[in-house]
Design a protein that fits this description.
The structure holds two protein chains of two kinds. By secondary structure, chain A is mainly alpha-helical. Chain A has helices spanning about 1-30, 40-65, 75-105, 105-130. Helices cover about 75% and strands about 0% of the residues of chain A. Chain B has helices at about 5-20, 30-40, 50-65. Chain B is flat, with a radius of gyration of 16 Å. The chains are: A mainly alpha, B mainly alpha.
Chain lengths: ~140, ~70
């Protein structure tokens, strides 16, 4: 029953969202880098963090599946997680720094840190794709 | 919008939700984010409350994924 409800929730989210919103979702998950001409506003940071949340949700699901007892997937998943972690750890360290710069509207530093985080998340996404780790967005792979 | 793209999105969303549920975990954070993006993505304005919630969700997910793996007892 729980499974049916969760599946239905995703279908409903997509169904209610419609095509325009699907494009927004895909856009949010693209996690593109930026330049000083295109400042990191709080709205932009929110969009990027939402996109990163979708990606990291997929990683957490993979980790939980990897550690499940009895084993569901081959133990080589541990190596995949360890290969991705340097990038996600970089993002974890840099996010508070980015939030501080955006709050202070220090755009020169905000853009640098934003790009560093986007590079890290995109590297993690590439490794996810290479290793068949599911990402819950059609356009994110 | 290409119907195949829509079906792909549905399939991937369901795949992740089912994976989380299969291992007995709560899929709500991921579903909330997918829902939020579907219904209000790329907003023009964001409240502080929405920012705080998004940051807390991402921080919690990153902390869980980045935690050291427990020893493999096999």
């Amino acid at each position: 029953m729980k499974k049916q409800i969760a599946s239905l929730a995703v279908v409903l989210a997509v169904g209610l969202g419609g095509c325009a919103e699907l494009k927004k979702i895909e856009g949010a998950a693209q996690l593109a880098t930026t330049t000083i001409d295109n400042p990191v506003t709080p709205e932009r940071m929110y969009e990027a963090e939402s996109g990163a949340t979708v990606v990291v949700s997929g990683l957490v699901g993979y980790r939980r599946t990897c550690l499940a007892k009895p084993r569901i997937i081959p133990k080589s998943c541990r190596g995949v997680i360890e290969a991705i972690q340097p990038y996600t750890k970089q993002a974890e360290v840099q996010l508070p720094v980015l939030r501080k710069f955006v709050k202070e509207n220090d755009q020169i530093n905000a853009v640098q840190v934003y790009n560093l985080i986007m590079d890290s998340v995109n590297s993690a996404k590439s490794l996810m794709t290479q290793n068949n780790v599911p990402i819950p967005i059609a356009g994110a792979q | 919008m290409d119907p195949v793209a829509i079906l792909n999105l549905i399939a991937k969303g369901v795949q992740v939700a089912e994976t989380l549920i299969q291992v007995g975990e709560n899929a709500l954070p991921a579903l909330k984010v997918i829902w939020g993006l579907a219904t209000g993505g790329a907003k023009d304005t964001v409240t502080q409350e929405e920012m705080d919630e998004a940051e807390a969700t991402l921080d919690a997910l990153l902390a869980e994924f980045n935690a050291p793996l427990p020893p493999d007892d096999e």
